[in-house]
Design a protein that fits this description.
Blueprint (H helix, E strand, L loop, with lengths): L1 E9 L3 H8 L9 H4 L3 H10 L3 E6 L14 E4 L3 E2 L14 E2 L2 H13 L5 E3 L6 H10 L9 E7 L9 H16 L5 E8 L16 H13 L9 H8 L6 H9 L5 E12 L2 E10 L2
Parallel strand pairs: 1-8, 2-7, 2-8, 3-6
Antiparallel strand pairs: 1-10, 3-7, 4-5, 9-10
Helix pairs in contact: 4-6, 6-9
């Protein structure tokens, strides 16, 4: 069976890609953010995952407003990214694992999730930048990937409760996969931020810190928020918290917090980072 070794949750701000390209990791503005990943790299070297299942949101590279699935899962042998107009260099293609992808898709459909299946799929900065943060240096990626795209762009959005149920269903499906694989689950986005309107630049540190605490010990309490309540508390784009909820849902039972970092602001966004392990 596949075994989930833990979860990483992190932000995916486009400016991160430009900072990496310009080698600004030690710049005073960026160091508090990038410095938080040293412990993550140590942890990944210890647990040595074979596969990363990544819950993220597409920003218009693969899906657009005319066709926006609530949940979509990649079933390709390879995933590429492309120029999104942010000045972020494109990265080495990511290797898929189609057999696992199809197992997850079939399990979710059996669990009454109507997912969109993508046998061809581009992945944008919401996927590629967290991967570059976790495994820096470029070159071939040490893990195969399954992208899980969650709509946080066009309303109506899936509720935190529905995203929690998606994570639980994915976790059960991974546990039932008949191959010896170590899996890290990744939830990307946020934390609080708003990029437009009268509240552009909005950050809610108290809410972010509460979410980072509850995602460890009481994640289901976060599922009681509605999408309008999340927008009010975390900003229009802060609803990306649902990707963290999907990732946490894949971890069954109690978890231990291995590492956490919180820094504000990076490009008008509250940047959160956590590493969680199942208590065995």
């Amino acid at each position: 069976m596949a075994r989930i070794v833990g979860a990483v949750t992190t932000s995916h701000i486009p400016a991160i890609g430009r900072a990496i390209a310009k080698n600004l990791q030690d710049d005073p503005y960026w160091q508090p953010f990038f410095g938080g990943f040293a412990r993550v790299h140590e942890w990944l070297a210890q647990v040595k995952p074979d596969v990363a299942v990544v819950a993220y949101n597409d920003h218009g590279l693969n899906f657009f407003l005319d066709k926006m699935p609530t949940f979509a899962i990649g079933a390709a042998a390879e995933y590429r990214n492309a120029d999104e107009g942010w000045g972020i260099p494109t990265l080495t293609p990511f290797r898929g694992i189609p057999d696992l992808s199809w197992h997850l898709i079939e399990s979710l459909v059996a669990a009454e999730f109507d997912v969109t299946t993508c046998q061809e799929m581009l992945v944008d900065h919401g996927f590629s930048l967290p991967m570059a943060l976790l495994w820096p240096g470029g070159g071939d990626w040490p893990v195969r990937v399954v992208p899980v795209s969650v709509n946080t762009v066009q309303h109506p959005l899936p509720t935190p409760a529905r995203c929690w149920k998606l994570g639980r269903a994915l976790g059960r499906a991974l546990a039932a996969y008949d191959e010896d694989l170590s899996v890290v689950v990744i939830g990307t986005g946020g934390l609080s931020h708003q990029l437009d309107g009268k509240r552009a630049g909005f950050i809610n540190k108290a809410f972010d810190e509460m979410c980072m605490e509850r995602i460890v010990g009481d994640p289901e309490s976060l599922t009681r928020y509605t999408i309008p309540q999340l927008v009010e508390q975390a900003g229009a784009q802060g609803v990306e918290l649902v990707n963290w909820i999907v990732a946490r849902g894949m971890l069954e039972g109690e978890v231990a917090r291995v590492h956490a970092n919180y820094h504000i602001p990076i490009s008008n966004t509250a940047a959160g980072l956590m590493v969680l392990e199942p208590r065995r």
